[in-house]
Each structure stands twice: as C-alpha cells, then as structure tokens.
Amino acid sequence: MPAFSRFLRYFMAVGRLGSIRKAADVLNVSASAIDRQILNVEADLGMPLFERLPTGLRLTAAGEIMMAAGGRWQKNLSDVRAQIEDLRGLKRGHVDIAVIDALAKGYLPGIVRSLQSRYPGITIGVRVIENDKVRAAIMNGEVDFGIFFEPQSYRGITVRAFVEVVLGLITPPDHPLGQQKEARFSAVTGSALIVPAEPLAVSQQIAVLEGITGVVLDRTVTSDNIQMIVSLVLEGVGIGILTSIDVFTEVKRGLLGFTRISDSILRPMTLALGTATARTPSYAASIVLAEIENDFAQLGYPGAIQTTASEA
C-alpha cells in the first residue's frame, strides 16, 4: 500500500501539472524518483499512462482511468480517516458538495456559516457546476452529495429530500407584473426580456413554452449565468425569466418580485438533495447532510414538498 500511495501521489501531480519537473518541485522529491515510479507501473500495466510530448506529458486513455480512480481512492482514504477520528469522539473531517449555480448565494452560504460555528473541525468544499455535472460528480464519488434538478431518471442516486421549484417572471418589486402572484407566459409579449441560455436547465422549459404557446420573446439579453440575469433585472434592463430558487434571496429581501408563470403545460421542476446509493456518507458528511435536509423545505415554492430517502 505505501508503494502504491507514493506512486499515486506522484502520478496525480504529474497528471495535473503535465510535467515531471514541475511535479518534483511541488512535491519536493527528485524528478528521477517520480519518473521511475511511473515507468515501473507502466511496465506492470503493459501500456503507457502518459504521452511524452515536446511540450510536456499528456494523459493517455489509460492515464485518464488511473486519474479518476486515484481521485476516488484519495476520497475514500479521507473518509476512512474521518471515521477513525469519529471513534475517538472527534467531529472532524472534510465534506465535498456539488451544487447548481442558483445555490451559490443566500441559503447554502448560511448553512455553511452555521456549521462552521458549531463544528469547526469540519471543512467543506463547495463545487458550483452545471446540473448534469452535479449528477455525474455524485455518481463518480467525486463529492459526498449534491443538490440538482430533475433526479427522477437517474438510478444509483438516493434522494434525501426534494422540493418543487417553479418558473416565473423576475421584475423590480414596483413593476406591475411584480404585484401579481401568477401570470400567463403571454404576459411578456412586447416586453424587453433577459432570457437564460444553455446550459441552464430553465432554457429548455422556456423553449417548450415558446413552441407550444407561439409567443415570440424579445430577447434583449441572453445569458448562461444566473447572477448576470438577476443583476440585469436589478439594473432595469428588462424582465427576467428564472426559477423561484434562482431569486430566493432577492425575493426574500424585497429586492425583486417573482410572478409564477401559470400556463398549465408548465410543470414544476424537482430540486433534489442526493447521495450515491452505493456509498455510505462519512460521519462528517452525515452531519452536513442532516443540517441541509432539515432546512431544505424552505427552498420550495409555494409550500415545499420534502421526502425521506429514496432511490432515484
């Protein structure tokens, strides 16, 4: 095991940096020692892990597999250490979370602040990535859990809690539409709009609405960044179209109005808190999970639905 862990540390450093010399400087070991470890494993496997190029080293297909496996191995080792510390009565460990962009403000930072005040021994890493990448990160064991849209079609993910999230019009609070709880999609006809673009999940729902209703949107601005859309609405550029979770913080503070789009063809989206079914969360991850699960209902609109664990 020590020999393998040494090789893996060397290999992953070279894989990230693309250079044995740079890895040697970072790890404070000789370049020849790193090269020898990699050559020995390549000989054992019978295939190269790197392409040797004039500009540096690049992972081969076999190297990519080894890199992914190495990441999982390091994460599992970290979990084992955390569980051993649990036996000693220490609330320590590291928890990795993947979330969609909408949760980068307000709700989740507040949860992290609360956790850090009560469990200073637990460190947290938060990855803000695209919806499909959150699912993949959970399935591949890159994170302990994640929050993402539409978990229904993905086997191997246990849904710990979920709420319904709806699509709506985002306006300044004094805008006429902002005074309404609901409005038809056709209400935006003739208005300057700030419209989400791919890969944002809501862009697909908007495309369906356009196709079925025949409403032609005046796309004054399009953006693939939720915060940019929110900022543009706050600046008075136009009306935005986002989900209730995207503007959870701004609506709660009275900075923006949210008017649900009431067309019957539009179904709510499911926002889920999920873990990999095949993996038992570490003690530290269980603490963070429980904290988020307890408060998850507040993310729904209106009156969230929360569930006990089930496999998606």
UniProtKB/TrEMBL annotation:
Gene3D superfamilies per UniProt: 3.40.190.290, Winged helix-like DNA-binding domain superfamily/Winged helix DNA-binding domain
Key word Transferase present: no
Keywords: DNA-binding, Transcription, Transcription regulation
Cellular component GO terms held in the UniProt record: cytosol
GO molecular function list: DNA binding; DNA-binding transcription factor activity
Domain HTH lysR-type: 8-60
Family matches, as Pfam families: HTH_1, LysR_substrate
Family: Belongs to the LysR transcriptional regulatory family.
Descriptive protein name: LysR family transcriptional regulator
Organism: Sphingomonas populi
